[in-house]
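Per-residue structure
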Amino acid sequence: MTVVELLEWGKSTLKEQTEPKFQTLASPTLDAEVLLAYALYVTKPQLFSRLNFEVSPKQEETYRAAIARRLEHEPVAYITGKKYFYGRAFEVNRNVLIPRPETETLIEEALRVFKLYEEHREKVRFIDVGTGSGALGITLSAETHKSVIASDISPDALVIARKNAAAHKVADQITFAQGNLLEPIVLILEESRPDHTIVTANLPYLTTRQWTDAQPEIRDFEPRLALEAGYYGLDVYWLFFRQLKEYRRCFGGSCVVLCEIDPAQDTKLPHLIREHFPEADIEILPDLHALPRVIRAVL
């Protein structure tokens, strides 16, 4: 069988998904192409330059198995074990959230804030809370060559984050700490307090109803611990800001916090922040789709 013949089979198989318990696949053509490139161990441009090549039995077996997994609505990123974020490939599995393009808004703002400290860059410390795959902390470290403290409550997530840090050659710049939100970070900062901190937090923010009604790719495969946060979707952020208020002294003279949110929380989270920090300077920033996505709070 040739590459083009196998690709057409993959496309038609995904397009004909009719299992009533599942929703229709959103992008069957793209999925078929990405999964075939994965099975052949080539890039997508290379895939289209080899359409008339013969596929080996092993490659065909790998592809058919990948298509079968996609038919069960397993995310493509979990099948291939890789997701690109801010131009870098990150290893992912079911222990970590799949990085989203919308989260790049948080990176852009963190880099913009960092530039404001240009004359004091040696005194700035990045902190990434709920690091998951490490996409945020690793990207910031790679872009700025600054040290980062990154925490996660899941030891399995930190295994992936450490692998990604090593792959992107920033393992010596990142301190990974296992624990609940800021608790392990405070232990580190108590020993060496920075003058300025930039804190990134892409914490769980889906409501319980949103989680229940989510697409099967999300609900059945991604870790609930990294996504769902109670009735209003703010349980984890409430605890985060309560901890931050208690340990504010550890975060330097200036502390800028960047939080990713659901667009529907653009008034709720600022209100929560001001309950803990009445004088906070808060701004809401849009994502690539012009939706409220990141809250910047200067504490």
Remarks:
- The longest strand covers residues 254-260.
- The domain at 95-298 is CATH 3.40.50.150 (Rossmann fold).
- Strands lie at 82-85, 88-91, 124-129, 148-152, 174-178, 196-201, 254-260, 281-286, 292-298.
